[in-house]
Amino acid sequence: MKRLTPPLSDDAVSDLKVGDKVFITGTIYTARDQAHLRLIEDDDPAFNLQGSILFYVGPTPAKPGQIIGSSGPTSAYRMDPMSPPLMARGVKAMIGKGDRSDAFRQSMIAHNAVYLIATGGAGALLSSRIKSIKPIMYEDLGPEAIHELYVEDFPCFVAYDVHGNQLFKGGGPREEKK
Amino acid sequence: MRKIERSAVIEAVKKTLIKANYELDETLVSFLKRAKDKEKNDLSRSILEDILTNESYAREGFAPLCQDTGIVVVFAEVGTDIRLDFDLYKAIDVGVRQAYDEGYLRKSVVNHPFQRENTQDNTPAIVHTKLVPGDRLTLKLATKGAGSENMSKVVMLTPADGLEGVKKLVLDTVFDAGGRPCPPIIVGIGLGGNFEKSAILAKEAILRDLEDESNDPDIRALERDLLHEINRLGIGPMGVGGDTTCLAVKVNTYPMHIASLPVAINIQCHSARHLEVVL
Ligand code: SF4
Questions:
Q1: How far is A166 from chain B (nearest CA, A)?
Q2: CATH fold of B2-20+65-144, please?
């Protein structure tokens, strides 16, 4: 078990190995499909990308008296084409679910970044680790806007590390993987 | 003729959908517990533990089970001895709208393949109606997330592909999907009918009770073999490897044309949210 506190340094990223369970405490940013499309074109984002962690999530609405609704990860592969330019600008970790393209993984290694997964379909559990939320960019996108989250002991697993290892079994044609 | 009130339909749809999004049925929970106890891979076991803890948080009303509260699918079995003096489809949509509002569920439906504007109330539902004898209206409601639905497919095999062709297709499809549909999964398979019938059969198969096995000995054997072989693929919970990839395989069949063998594979994630209500 390892603890991560963003912003992440290159050393913190290199230290992570596939299969490690990590607990994140600190500020992370939500972004999914639409927000990615805008962020890659945006020269002046409202947060510092260097060392940042992006969380692919589109939560349910918060109930009265709560901070956020169910907040599990969405499938990461949809963000594959948009991730390299963001890693080039300093994004160090992405939290999603499921496998990603080889092109993504090569780029991730080249930029010394890491791909983490959180348990899909565990949105109620994960939302209990989110302590504050603030929309900071693209508020017209509603739940897909970029939100700043403060998380405590947010549980993830390392799925791709910079050492070239990957966690997944399956995904992609069966013949090739044998 | 037994009359069923519009308000009763709306209320039933609303209540059932909210409940389905906040708790899994007991059989599914017991299958997940059993899988967790048997799982040898530590990482996979910890994911299964998270899934079970998540269920208890949701059940207490903390938040819905999953943030993808899905698009609503309804199988409406309409007794021929009932009278409905209203538009059933519209009443279902009113129930959906109220459920997604009052239950704090995410509205995940867009209007058009390319315009993609959110309809803002998670309508319309996808409704399949069937006429049955009797004076009851049975609504089987499911809320289906995109992660697993996107990994589903219909393939028109030929009769010569036979049993082995079907098995290979299912195993390839599940392997290909890997961790994306949030395993452990439930696999619903529709065999026969024609192009669209097979897809409906597969969806109905997913809604079967997890303990239920086919009455047809050949199909029962297929369900058991596939379950075993899928678990041997080693995909594991969320694709991280392990013993638990699939909780159940359900196969529904229908007669077909002499020249076809339609196969539909509908994948259901562990967050299998569906409930039945009888009016
Ligand atoms: S596949 Fe199921 S459990 Fe996973 S995110 Fe989608 S709805 Fe939730």
A1: 9
A2: Dihydrodipicolinate Reductase; domain 2 (3.30.360)
Whether the CB of A88 is below 8 Å from some CB of chain B: the reply is no
User: What are the domain boundaries of chain A?
Assistant: 2-160
Q: Is the dihedral of CA B250, B254, B259, B260 positive or negative?
A: negative
Confirm or reject contact between A171 and chain B (CB < 8 A).
yes
Q: What is the pTM of this model?
A: 0.94
Which residues does chain A have within 8 Å of residue B52's beta carbon, measured at their own beta carbons? none
- Residues within a 6 A CB radius of ligand 1: A 72, 120-121; B 66, 68, 145, 147-148, 181-182, 269, 271
Segment holding A38, helix H or strand E: helix A33-39
Write down the ipTM of this complex: 0.91
Q: What span, in angstroms and rounded, lies between the C-alpha atoms of B141 and B210?
A: 16
* Residue extent(s) of CATH 3.30.360 domains in chain B: 2-20+65-144
Q: Are residues B14 and B92 in contact, defined by beta-carbon separation less than 8 angstroms?
A: no
Structure token pair of residue B139? 């609504």
Beta partners for residue A155, in sequence order: A23
For domain A2-160, say whether CATH 3.20.130.10 is its number. yes
Residues in chain A with CB shorter than 8 Å from the CB of B238 are 97-98, 117, 119-120
Instruction: Encode chain A (178 residues) as per-residue pLDDT tens digits.
Output: 899 999 999 999 999 999 999 999 999 999 999 999 999 999 999 999 999 999 999 899 999 989 999 999 999 999 999 999 999 999 999 999 999 999 999 999 999 999 999 999 999 999 999 999 999 999 988 878 999 999 999 999 999 999 999 999 888 777 665 4
**From A36, A111, A147, A163, the catalytic residue:** A36
